[in-house]
Amino acid sequence: MRHAPQSAKSTHVTEWDEGRRRSVLDELAVEEPLEIRVNGQSVGVTMRTPGDDFDLAIGFLLTEGIVTGRGDVERIGYGEDESGQTTGNRVDVTLSAAVSFDASHLERRAVANSSCGICGRASIDAVRARDLVAPNPAFSIDADLLIALPAVLRSSQRVFGRTGGLHAAALFDAKGAAFAICEDIGRHNAVDKVIGRALLADALPLSTSVLVVSGRGGFEIIQKALVAGVPIVASVSAPSSLAVQLAREFNLTLIGFLRARRFIVYSGEQRLRPANAPVEK
User: Fold this and answer.
1) How many domains does the chain have?
2) What is the model's pTM?
3) Are residues 121 and 147 in the same domain?
4) CATH code of 197's domain
5) Where are the strands (E) in the chain, listed by range?
6) CA 153 – CA 183 distance, rounded (Å)
7) What is the rounded CA–CA span in Å between residue 48 and residue 203?
8) So which residues are the catalytic ones?
9) Looking at residue 26, what is its pLDDT?
10) What is the DSSP letter of 34?
11) Mean pLDDT value of segment 141-153
12) Does one domain contain both 189 and 258?
């Protein structure tokens, strides 16, 4: 491979501290483009942090409606650049012969940057035009276990610890065991990575899983969770109004501001135990 992208790079910077300055070595989170190709046709370019690229590509294809399960994927590997050299910034996916593939519905208008999972869409209606279904109503989790999950997520953020510049997403089961934890400069990419890993492990739907994300819980994250069958999504920051609307429409449990022993439930409180905790007025 001519170019194997790194997740972090070192650079010399000048640090100012109380009027004093010094030259130090700093670590930066890497942001590079990843082109995803299906059956030889480009279906999108996303700005991402290198690492877990195959998971990211498959998670993207699932949440875009191109694949639905492990059996749809015949082969995945790094592709070649214009000079014929294998590059770490292009992933080629070959679908099984039984899969009908039409990339025209993606209607991408631009490269998806690291802060937006649906940038370039012709309209929000194109995102909503999916056969989304309500996630598992019987799944629940103990509230005391839930509040411990952000610490597990943070302790596993290896590159964040070096750079301070990455988001993370993780899938946990009802006992708090982590199935997948991935980092990326983009929240939506981190989510695609953990969902893609689950698909490649033939673990979909994620009907008994909790998705925990750093940063805010945006609409695109809720949409991705619904596609993968995730019943509970928790973020350490605030959700958006559209994310709350979508979660309530499909009765997905949406939790925000999950920090220390406090959190806010925006939708689907029935999945939290104990459900009969007293409510102060």
Assistant:
1) 2
2) 0.87
3) no
4) 3.40.140.10
5) 8-17, 20-29, 32-38, 41-48, 73-80, 86-95, 141-142, 167-172, 178-184, 210-213, 232-235, 253-259, 262-267, 272-273
6) 10
7) 24
8) 116
9) 77
10) E
11) 92
12) yes
